[in-house]
Amino acid sequence: MISDPSTGKAQQVTVSGPQANALIGLRIGDEVDGSIVGMSGVKLVIRGGSDRSGAPMRSDLPGPVKRRLLLSQGPGFRPRKKGLRKRKLVRGNTITEDIVQINMVVKREGEGS
Fold first, then answer.
1. How many CB atoms lie within 10 A of CB 3?
2. How far, in Å, CA of 93 to CA of 62, rounded?
3. Are the C-beta atoms of 39 and 32 separated by less than 8 Å?
4. Share of the chain above pLDDT 70, in %
5. Most distant CA pair in the chain: distance in Å?
6. End-to-end Cα, the chain, rounded Å
């Protein structure tokens, strides 16, 4: 999913093959050239994603691991009451083969976009 804050629109782009392999090993917060997803002249920033089972990626969990963390807010848990905490399954901040959705934001556009 690629979001453009200047227009407020988002679009879904499917990537496979060698383009998808270029994303493996990157982390949340890394900058990516837009030509990987077919948007030349654009810089994209990785903001998150989710794996096959739906577990969201968290930027504060290093590596390509899957852990059950005690969460009080943020990606993976939205508390219904103030002070509520719950143990939830989340993914680390590194992209692996198990990640099926990557959320990106347009950082800056080029001349030809």
1. 15
2. 6
3. no
4. 96
5. 48
6. 17
